[in-house]
Amino acid sequence: MTETLVPFDEALTRYDPVMGLEIHIELNTATKMFCGCPTDFGAEPNTQVCPVCLALPGALPVVNAKAVESAIRMGLALNCKIAEWCRFARKNYFYPDMPKNFQTSQYDEPIAFDGWVDVEVDGETFRIEIERAHMEEDTGKALHVGGSTGRIHGADFSLVDYNRAGIPLIEIVTRTIEVPPEKAPAVARAYVSYVRDLIGGLGVSDVRMDQGSLRADVNLSLKPKGSTVLGTRSETKNVNSFRSVERAVRFEISRHAGILDAGGAVLQETRHFQEDSGTTLSGREKSDADDYRYFPEPDLAPVSPSREWVEELRATLPEPPAVRRARLQADWGFSDLDMRDTIGAGALDLIVATVEAGTTPQAAKKWWLGEMARRSNEAGQDIDALGITPQQVAEIQALIDAGRINDKLARSVFDGVIAGEGTAEEVVVSRQLEVVSDDGALGAAVDRAIEGDPDAAAKVRAGNLGVAGALIGAVMKEMRGQADAGRVRELILEKLS
Amino acid sequence: MTDLTRKTADELAQALSAKEISSVEVTQALVDRIGAVDGAIHAFLHVDAEGALATAADVDERRARNEQLSYLAGVPIAVKDVLATKGLPTTCGSKILEGWIPPYDATVTAKIKAAGLPILGKTNMDEFAMGSSTEHSAYGPTHNPWDTTRIPGGSGGGSAAAVAAFEAPLAIGTDTGGSIRQPGALTGTVGVKPTYGGVSRYGLVAMASSLDQAGPVTRTVLDAALLHELIAGHDPMDSTSIPDAVPAVVAAARRADVKGLRIGIVKELGGEGFQPGVQARFTEAVDLLTAAGAEVVEVSIPSLQHALGAYYLVMPSEASSNLAKFDAMRYGVRVPPTGVDDPSAEQVMASSRDAGFGDEVKRRIILGTYALSSGYYDAYYGSAQKVRTILARDFASTFADVDVLVSPTSPTTAYRLGEKLDDPLAMYLGDVATIPANLVGIPGLSLPVGLADEDGLPVGLQFLAPQKADDRLYNAAAALERLLEEKWGGTLLSTAPELETVR
How confident is the model at residue B9 (pLDDT cuts 50, 70, 90)? Predict the structure, then answer.
């Protein structure tokens, strides 16, 4: 079925979006939520499993205390209240990637609730209310083999990897996000980005959207302007980048509006975001008939964190993001606009790390907000998913500072590093990018440039130093850019003095 | 040579310790006994003669080297088929687990192995411990050694019958609503359900997590205490395990003194609906306790009228969820649907569960699924949990006035095979006296107190004590056991009819 899409701006003339976000964060605890299995990403399938996470008959769960600690710290960072007493619950449904055929989660007794965060979009602050943050376990991962889509339909067979089964997750659920309709996509993106920075700062998760350690689901419905009746919502999953969060919100608004304009009914369903087309595809239909038969998990004792412990954990929290940003801005000497661009690009922590690795704030900003932001836009990828680390940026800048490459050559070094050709040093060698600092070779090139453009040479000799640029350009061209332009200038001026 | 199969575990332990006998001799005698009588009894689903004899030989060797051994080292034991035993089949009496061999040991199994008790085999049970007669085993019923046309009780009929038929001096049972105590009563053996959390549930295939508890099945109170002490204790693998020290149950069993002990007869757990012969033996036993210096009073706990109803909501609810894991995806029997090309995983799950589960299991899964459904939860599961809270409060206030409570263990003696198979409700009612202890988490012990006049079959008396006061059960039961044996001039089981043996 082809869907009629209503352009975003037009849709907002007739409807108001009602939006909520669910973020799943995989904790980086050494072991799983309810057993002692390791949690390393990318291990051979079904090698990080035991009787508990495979749900062998008789096995019992035990709560990972470190995961509870991480959940409490996360709750505190989200300005939530921490429950004095809470329980796990069983969410019952059959699915082959879920060993017990129930997920051990929290239902009406979450560890953290009633919080908020403030996010900034274009200099304006929006408050996002957090309904709850609760602990649960991840499922295994099904791999559908055969067929063209990689989805279950049309597959020849399916394999299940239970390494991920039982990895601790925290689910953060917002209340309905009340913002001006046209801001909804950008606010959604800013919120996910903010939570990523916040949780990343706690050190409790890798918060990598591309690896699935941070997953955002967009719940969205439309209501006609002026109406108080909520529409039917869709739940969009598979949103794997900040950019996709924004695109998913825009697309769903357009799609819902198209259905409603045609007098149709939006299905309550799970939808999958398609990175390549920016659209969403229908997944599993949900209905009110879905009954998970929640009940308190009888195999686990209630969790009752003492107030003393909660306060101890509060004391371990890093400075609040607003305070931190102000401090960094002052330390770095960034303008308000620089800072806004940095936040908008999702580059704050990248610049912090680059500066920590020895680069000046100005140079770090130049690379991340210039070269990397451009690549991120072109590739449609988040800036931290480009395959270049702050450490590598710092290494490349160090090569520039040492005069071994220049800014222009550095771009080629970035290409090589991203392509996996080795360290910056190795790429410079293998791609033969090092600037020529041998005065003999440079001197010969300078001589040829002077011979080739006697007019310019004469003007420089006469004191018109501005014309030296033409000679420098000729030398750089001959050296295919691999020369230190400053040294070339010096040589030209020496020879023409 | 005296018949080693008739010895109690304590007698065997002493003789082994004194090197008068070897564990291999004892184990071989029991393996032979199983071979001779188990065709008629069917207490075992799986006999591991080879493994048991290997353990026995190892213990004998270590004893010959004068190694420090556990008191019960070398005394053979039978294990209910609901506990995971590494390398030995574990079916839970269900077709769905036919052929499954666990790659790990339950904590109870691990403790038994570490202490050097040869494991004779796995005992029969109602499928997933759902039943009170062992007739719901997918592998055929167990027969009562007192009368092989009758049921041995359930769900742990296999463990109780094995001990009653002298096929094992010790066995492990599990008790969710009476599955240790009721078979104990019906076979003339001792069965103990410890305080919830007293014995680790790790590796016990759960029926109802908040009710299940493993415990000893033996022929004497002291043997039960010795086994209790061996298997109890905190286990970090079980979050519901109690961190406290194990009560001094062996010392209590040796003390056996009821002078001044305050005993409450629970009014609601006797009288109407209880077989006259059961009631008569119960009353005589209480009279013996009174004569020995106990202060006996009648107590009333009116909320008990709701216990059976609450149990039949909580148990199936938890069971419906616990049994969801049996989906033929990772282990167990896989039965593809017939007439379906390329079945989906869900279809294979459904057809495997349909083929693998018996009727009683399906009945409870359906009941539990219904009770947990949205819109019914508060009325069913929620209300049942409230009943548990009220019961716990009422038991606690009752225990403020008495040290232990007593009642008949079961309203009837062993009925005939097939008699109640088509009437689940009648069978459920047989657990009326045992279920409250599970709902409240308190310990209970069933002791044989004689034979009913009308049918000549064993009658059990149940002691109940407050949480973590399991020692009180052993003190009182050991005292009553001594008084009864003095009166009888021997044990009750010694009067059981000889079984026909196969050579």
Answer: very high
Domain-ending residue, one of A294, A312, A330: A312
In this predicted structure, the answer to whether residue A289 has a pLDDT above a threshold of 60 is no
Q: Is the ipTM of this complex over 0.90?
A: yes
Q: How far apart are CA A125 and CA A403, in angstroms?
A: 43
Contact B126, B178 (CB under 8 A): no
What 3-state DSSP class applies to A63? coil
Q: How confident is the model at residue A312 (pLDDT cuts 50, 70, 90)?
A: very high
Name residues whose C-beta falls within 8 Å of residue A149's C-beta, 6 or more positions apart in sequence.
none
- Interchain proximity A293–B330, CB inside 8 Å: no
CA distances (Å), origin B455, targets A56, B186, B277 = 44, 12, 8
Q: Domain of A136?
A: 8-312
Characterize B139-160 residue by residue with b for buried, 16 or more Cβ atoms within 10 angstroms of its Cβ, and e for exposed: bebbbbbbbbebbbbbbbbbbb
Ramachandran sector of residue B304 (left: φ over 0; alpha: ψ -120 to 50; beta: rest): alpha
In this structure, are residues A488 and A475 in contact, taking their beta carbons and an 8 Å threshold?
Answer: yes
Q: Round to whole Å and give the CA distance between B380 and B373.
A: 9
Could you tell me if residue A152 is inside a domain? yes
Q: Are residues A131 and A97 in the same domain?
A: yes
Q: Is A145 on the interface with B (CB under 8 A)?
A: no
Q: Is B42 left (phi over 0), alpha (psi -120 to 50) or beta?
A: left
Structure tokens at A194: 């903010």
Among A31, A50, A101, A139, the residue to mutate for chain B (most B Cβ within 10 A): A101
Indicate yes or no: pTM above 0.80: yes
Q: Do A58 and B203 touch (CB under 8 A)?
A: yes
CA gyration radius, chain B: 22
Of B320, B325, B346, the CB nearest to A99: B325
Instruction: Give the number of residues written for chain B.
Output: 503
**Mean pLDDT along residues B121-147:** 98
Do A186 and A122 form a contact (C-beta atoms < 8 A)?
A: yes
Q: Which residues of B touch A294 (CB under 8 A)?
A: 372, 377
At B268, which amino acid appears? E
Q: Where are the alpha helices (DSSP H) in B101-177?
A: 107-114, 157-164
Tokens of residue A457, six digits: 């040479």
Q: What is the pLDDT of residues B310-358, one digit of tens each?
A: 999 999 999 999 999 999 999 999 999 999 988 988 999 999 999 999 9
Q: What is the rounded CA–CA span in Å between residue B168 and residue B43?
A: 10
Share of chain A above pLDDT 70, in %: 97
- Which residues in chain A are closer than 8 Å to B343, comparing Cβ atoms? none
Alpha helices in A21-122 (DSSP H): 65-77
Residues of B with active-site annotation:
80, 155, 179
pLDDT of B493 over the 90 cut: yes
The residue written with tokens 């480009």 in the block is: A386
Whether domain B4-303+389-495 has CATH 3.40.640.10: no
pLDDT exceeds cutoff 60 at A287: no
Q: Do B478 and B486 touch, CB atoms closer than 8 A?
A: no
Cβ pair B395, B121 in contact under 8 A? no
Contact: A293, B205; criterion CB under 8 Å:
no
In chain A, the number of structural domains is 3
Taking a C-beta distance cutoff of 8 angstroms, is the pair A468, A489 a contact?
yes
Mean pLDDT of chain A: 91
Rounded to 10 degrees, the C-alpha dihedral B404/B405/B411/B415 comes to -10
- Please indicate, yes or no, whether residues A304 and A338 belong to a single structural domain of this protein: no
A146 touching B, CB under 8 A? no
Cβ contact B349–A57 (<8 Å)? no
Tell whether the model's pLDDT for residue B110 goes beyond 90: yes
List residues bridging with A134 in a β-sheet: A171
Domain ranges of chain B: 4-303+389-495
- In a domain, residue A3? The reply is no
Do A341 and A462 sit in the same domain of this protein? Answer: no
By residue count, chain A amounts to 497
